[in-house]
## 1
Amino acid sequence: MNVPAFPTGTILGYPRIGRRRELKHAVEAFWAGRIDAGELEARAAELRAATRERLVALGLGRDDSSIPESFSYYDQVLDAAVAVGAVPERFRRLQDEHGSVDLAGTFTIARGEGDDAPLEMTKWFDTNYHYLVPEIGPDTAFTPHAERIVARFAEAKAAGYLTRPVIVGPVTFLLLAKPADGAPAGFRPLDRLADLVPAYAALLAELCTAGVEWVQLDEPALVSESIDEPRGRVLDAIGVAYDALGAADRRPSLFVAAPYGGLDDALPALAATPVEAIGLDLVRGGVPEHLDAATAESLAAKTLVAGVIDGHNIWRGDLAQAFDRLEALRSLAGDVSVSTSTSLLHVPHDVGDETALDERLVSWLAFADQKVAQVAILERGLVAGRESIEDELVAASAALVDRAGAPGVRVPGVRDRLAVLTDRDVTRAAYDERVAAQATLDLPELPTTTIGSFPQTGEIRRARARLQTGELTEAGYRELMHEEIARVIRLQEELGLDVLVHGEPERNDMVQYFAELLDGFAVTQHGWVQSYGSRCTRPSILWGDVSRPAPMTVDWSAYAQSLSDKPVKGMLTGPVTILAWSFVRDDQPLGDTARQVALALRDEIADLESAGIRIIQVDEPALRELLPLKRADQPAYLDWSVGAFRLATGGAAPATQVHTHLCYSEFGVVIDAIRNLDADVTSIEAARSRMEVVDDLATSGFDHGIGPGVYDIHSPRVPGAAEVQALLERAVAEIPASRLWVNPDCGLKTRGYDETVASLRHIIEATRAVRAGLREPVPAR
């Protein structure tokens, strides 16, 4: 086949939510019935048009396939499932006579409806993005549906742009899937690869007919050693999939991108296939030092797309070093192209929007638009020679030097405090001693609680906005927050919850709230990134040494506790999660930064105890998220991440009950780390996965308090009391009731009050029924 030239510069993807979250607002308006599907699609088309125009203005080509078509209304893995017809049985009613699912139906699969639970959701590799987990069984019928992909390509072509469609590749699609309900024991989704590949081939044929020259197939699973599948089987799957797709008569040229780490042993397998271009993440990985002759010969006939611009973080980076790596690759490949290491999905749009940030800090940063511009600079160097970009390389190096010497980047007092820590600082009293000391909390069997936040109403958000604009005084704001806290406490008491929370109305975000109160952080105005679906987060920037100037949560927690005789939890975000959900400095090991954050939280816990708070929750939902994809790197990570949590909580008295919370994780992978956190109680996501985690807990010998979630808060569904009771009964069958807690999967901030109250009532009703069953005598045999 005639292979068109691959662009010399490109990116793997671009933020899709819009510079001011236009897509989020449009999607939520559609869900609320304020606009119809036609209006939603029109707004999305406007957003895509603006993106194409912006990328060309920043230096990407208009007609050379350098612009990736990576748009999604909700999730790229869900899009791939719909494109190959992999719709779960419970949602087959959403398909038309040809097997297609419309936009509304796609949202239903993502969010659930009635008694039909949505697809499970979990983290996308080691990022804070969540993807929807496909459900694949032995009888899943794969049928191609390229209509949406073709329509977006045609939309761009009509406007004068030749774009590159982006699809999750077949190997990654199956490796990220789970067996459908009813699948036989031992079945693995990867078993269906030979059946899935023809559907991908048919998609490629339709794209070829539409005029697509290059298609990007994302295969990040190839770099991961954390997926539960033998590595040899993964390597074999590369050949099965890409030998077949490469041999197809009618197809675009194939660009296989492998972000989030080094391909390592997968590079020879991929190089041996007929794909025309391979994307390498050279920020997190590299090219193996010793390539066999066959691999070297294969690479010499391909384009290597070098991901030398970090797509996962927001620092300006070392352009001179990046260009050196590009030049070194020229001896290996037929052609070299410069790219981002990952999609820019993970970074905000434009640092130029951040008018409130310190100008010196801004000079160290590169958001998505600045990274596209960096790609364009390096592309110019590849074409015209290093001397053509020497000024830009020097400027980038000067910014690195300036950053290293700036005040606040290194604070001697913080570093001196870390230097004198000992093992005693990370070791609490024995667990049995703590259980005895905490008996004075006088909690019932199967104690009920929530994870922390309650719905953030429009009134709360408006009050926060009025405070920022000066329309509301600090005293007036505190009065309004106290009124909301009092309302939440009364509601919980009326519902009958056993351990209460203050609801966190004063917190804009579980990380940003603390970032605004800790030294070493900065926060953005418009630095939004997609977390999942329409949900966005605004990661803070951790740029310097971290310390706590003053208590951050004590007044709010003490006020809430003064309103009730029941225990009220103090609520903190843990050091690993603060790092995972921030853009963290890259000039020192993550473990060093985590320990600095942990010391600040340790001081906060001491002050909460002094204020009379007997239960303190330190949330670590991101513990699994940061687990390195390479096994060799995992022990060191688990050592410092667990150590940071224990440093934060190690000073707590035996009578203080320390909780933690984790969500969206494959818990079996990190069960030993969860045990080593040594929290008195751990609450975890379990409802959307229908309590699968209890098997891991039972077989692992986990012997501390545990609260597997019974209410999936990431769906608008209200679970019935019978559904919750069934989940609890499954948990009680595997975990001693004396250690079992009852709680939702996660915080309630994103839900509305009507659904929240109804769901919590059902949780209380189900808990009382299960408690009653525990008290019934066992019939004599």
Note: Residues 753-775 form the longest helix (23 residues).
## 2
Amino acid sequence: MNNPVARSRALFQNLPTPPKADKRPVNDSRHGITRTDDYGWLRADNWQAMFKDPSILDPAIRAHLEAENAYMEAALGDTADLQKTLFAEMKGRIKEDDSSVPMKDGPFAYGTLYVTGGEQAHYFRTPRDGGERQVLLNGDREAEGKDYFRLSGIDHCSDHSLGIWGYDDKGSEYFTLRVRNLETGEDLPDVIENTAGGGVWAPDGRSFFYTLQDENHRPSKVFHHLLGQPQSADRLVYEEKDPGFFMGVGGSLLDDVIYIDIHDHETSEYRILSTTDLTAEPLLVAEREEGVEYSMTEGGEIFYILTNDGGAKDFKIMAAPVAAPGKENWVEVVAHEPGRLILSHAAYARHLVWLERREGLPRIVIMDRASGEQHAIAFAEEAYSLGLQGAAEYDTDVIRFSYSSMTTPSQLFDYNMATRERVLLKTQEVPSGHNPDDYVTRRVMAPAHDGELVPVSLLYRKDTRLDGSAPCLLYGYGAYGITIPASFSTNTLSLADRGFIYAIAHIRGGKDKGFAWYEDGKMEHKENTFRDFIAAADHLVKEGFTSYDNIIAEGGSAGGMLMGAIANMAPEKFAGIIAAVPFVDVLNTMLDDTLPLTPPEWPEWGNPLDSEEEYRWIAAYSPYDNVADRPYPPIFAISGLTDPRVTYWEPTKWIARLRDTAPEAGPYLLKTNMAAGHGGKSGRFQRLEEIAFEYAFAIKVAGKM
């Protein structure tokens, strides 16, 4: 069995004294249970304001974060050249002057491009059938002089004269919206602050709708903005009073409806506004009912509604008249089929389309609306990824989809739903070269503790020895029903080319094997997620792919919680752990209903404020609360100062407690991006620098430098 402490002492020598956070104990009593948090002071009292202005961070907290960064740099200083090499490799696989295949919409076709050396996307359009590009928004120019800059895109109005574009320049995910004249390139005076990132045009192009983020970073209000008026004059269209629900606003391809989508992780509600009367009260479609989800798309005189209503756990598709869309008028179009999970749907003038997953693999299904005849688009590889892009126009027979596998670069197709003709538009270029025949992609099934089989997708070079000697980066997420696709990544080739096996564990908490796979990895069943991941590691060792002293585990956000949990449960089975923006202080966060995501997250994790039982579930696995004197392997945690999803203090507190409780293990390294949020740095090459850092850590702790 792996001895991570002995290995880490050999790998990390002559380290400086690590930072030691002050202990300022605070007791918290709930349900007759008292806990002590020694490091709660690292949570800035003014966090709401600090997200918008990081310069006001408490100097003592800033000093501690900077000391952690310095210690991390010292511990990984010997990987500097390796990081540069990895970065150069990954950058060399990116076509720097790449551009998308424009999507046709009316008289134009719209797309994005990058220029050589550029970090940000440029948005452009051409005449519909080709011609000279007109750049509508130059992301590199807009980002000049900013430490952080992220575009939310640009959306044109119906007559193609104006576009709404948004940006976040702090990493806090408070987006500012501007309106651009697409002919002149000039911005109008309108400035809309603190939005969720986008707007939806009214058909006349003289006004738009947007979602406002409140002081606790919750999208709680939808407003209607008239061009030329100040934001303070915008009309409130709908306010969501329940802090446990997210809200978004969207539009239809037919410009006939504005959708207000209200949902948490298990319940949804739609309100719709006809664009024939923008001042009307939004119409409630079906009142929210706990555990019932539905989503809508336009279909001319009807709506198509994807729902799990009536016990349809893996979802079905219904239809309802536009004039009376209430649940009493829903009629089944595509029946529920257990084990066939319908993920999303779209409708066009003559066809209904949906993306589904069976046995962990996706396929696209097309139904002729007139005849009801169905056919599917699927592929034959053991593991692959499909993306349904659809179309920007309603009256069309042509949709767009993407395909890739862990060995096959992404391919983009136009598909004629009537003739079933498939046209390859583009294959992802790898400028430095890539031969798929040099690599192997496989899917193996790992037996879990309760007899379930956990799919694990693998990528490795054909010449890799499968005798247990290969290092392995094992990635996992397992939350919110999100499935991690077995798609092509140029970055992971840098690991495979160094003899690594790159593995994705499709653990419970995602929907990889249907909706039940998700349910079996949430709330009181959350421990299944962690045990599945450990089972995947065990299986890879048993089958000779790798060994415990060669496995580096990686996960981010909710996958970072997974990393903290498996570190507590089985530290001896991993050579190292990478936890990106890790959600590790689960109990404290779920008890703090002022934080942006806490009330909406209760259906995923439980509500420890109201329920002693749910308090005890979370307390039993919360990584921060279960740190003990164990033989932890080296741990590398990464956070963003302005991250509103997983706040910087979670990994900061976790590392402090690990270092205090198990000082002979580790080392424990924390890297805080002082000018970034949840997604790390925003530029495409800046992000590669961060990945190179993570991979260099993995290579070092695997002893392969």
Note: The two ends are 22 Å apart (CA to CA).
## 3
Amino acid sequence: MLQAIGLTSTPRRDLTSAVDDLTFEARPGSVTALLGASGAGKTTALRLMLELQPGRGITYFRGRPLHRIAHPAREIGVLLGDVPGHPGRTVRGQLRMLGAAAGVPVSRADELLDVVGLQGLRDERLGTLSLGMERRLGLATALLGDPHTLLLDAPSGGLSLRESSWLFGLLSAHAAQGGTVLYTTDDPKEAARTADHVVTIDDGRLVADQDGAAFARTRLRPRVAVRTPHAARLADVLSCEARASRRSVEVVAEAGSRLTVFGSTCPEIGEAAFRHGILVHQLADEFGDTGPGPVPRLAPVPAAVSVPVPGPGSSPGSGSGPGSSFRTVSVPGPARAFTPRQARAEADTTPTEAVTTPHTAPHATPQTAPHATPHVAPDAETHTGPHTELRAEPAPDGLGPLLPPPLSARPARSPLRPVRYELRRMLGVPSTYLIVAAVLVASTVLAVTLAHSGRTSLPGLLSAWPGLLPLPPAALGAGLLGALSFGHEFRYPALADARGTVPRRLGLLLAKSVVTAASALLLTLLAVVADFGVLRLVYGAGAAPVPDNWLALGTGWAGLAVGSAWAGLLAAGVFRAAVAGVAAVIAVPTLVVPLLQVAFSGPSARSMAGLPGRLRELTWLQWPGQVDRWLMVAVRLMAQPVAVALTLSLSVLLGAYLLTGLRRRARWRPRKDRSMPSCPQVP
């Protein structure tokens, strides 16, 4: 059960709170709608429940507040707005990346793609998806961890009727297997048609808390739909007669030639139109839920039941008035039990589609209704999610089950989880491969050009580092990869508190550091090998001999590349933009190095000669003489201006990142306060 208690947002200066002392609950096994007009505080309430916005109050998810849940993605599935993702990433790559952060198996992504109907689009880029496909992907993201509770903000906004029917069918199936579903909407018709329970708010305060049948009966007024080519004239006539008879009648002009009349009846409107000679094309009673009257819960239905379905001549939502027509659909099958929402959903089925029955799949999509038959598995494992003992058989036509199979067990925390996420994040976008290709091409072209002039030393040829460039291409490419590592997180926040998939911030930083360092080393090795091979191919073996100090040179190049990558990574994490990371990488040789040279200019009065011997005396350890030589090589490398500048810059950036990014405790750790200050989406 979801229990929201005393939710109150922190008001801005001279403004009232968007949510004020809001208390309600959403029960398991039912779909709850949070209804309110635009600006009523629905989205703010969800953000307060998820501790994404400062305020007061607390929300319990099955008896535990959010900060006490060890694996939020396994308890709560969230869809707030669009799914942020790099437009160049594939649909399957996006799910696998988020699955790696949530600690679910790789196969979970394919199962969910099959469930939401995106299996055929698994290799499509996110930037090419339509709104309906994006909403399907968002629902798959929310279901990744097999959560018990689903929180969705206006999930049907902008969707077609068919897409909305599919969406609410899947939500109803989730609730039917014991899950809790809470979604926001501003459409009373949608709430009455799709929700078992409706919580109505206005100006952030609770207005009503009712079940679906009571809401449709008391919160929605009956009305009459009128279509006439003389809409304005008929509206004036009805208003004048209402004033003359002192009756409360409200006439609302809709689009085109449609009128909606509140407080009157079809006979009264028809007689008024007849008296004034006004032509009427349609006259029909309407009710709030746009369907038949509520059916008592668990009411038995005979084996063959006739369900009235609006015919082609009736408007959506027309009742039994004289202007409506119906057709009867006979539903064969054994005796069944309908809930009010299920009966209304069956009556809303389009004329070309068969009426589905709860015996097969209560709210199945048209593709899966005849085949997706959940059954009770006698050896089903105990699971904390909504799928306790129900499992869905795959459809014979390959369309897949209505809901994915449950996750059998919760894996233990693994330090490799952020590493897997970071690898999938880096390797899942085309920009990584374009950067590597650009670095290799630029490096080989520069190496051939510098060798042709003959004025560049061998180390400069192999690293393709002319004096005009602040850094060699490999180091610049490594810095760009490091900057994009955090830059993409802030621009396309795949890891967000709203989705419950945020690893520990320190673990995420370490994972990004390891992956960017490995990519920098690999990029440097590829660039040196490519330069070496191209020089030997173009100018012969004598143009690029193997240097005697190749190990020291390689160590220096590797340190430069790794330092550039980490500088870009930390700067992008501090300033939340990839451009800032690239600027920090370039600023090291162009600004920091000249400043250090000015500060330490002049002859040196001291020398570090004999440092290995003094270290041996200090530690009382004896090591081979070869170690002394390599130790002095490392000291000389660290004494280089670029190395000193990189070390100083990394120290400053790391301190700034710790102050700005790690001020708050991680999501996986309990914290005493119940509010969370405004913060970026990425840790």
Note: Confidence is low (pLDDT under 50) at residues 289-401, 664-683.
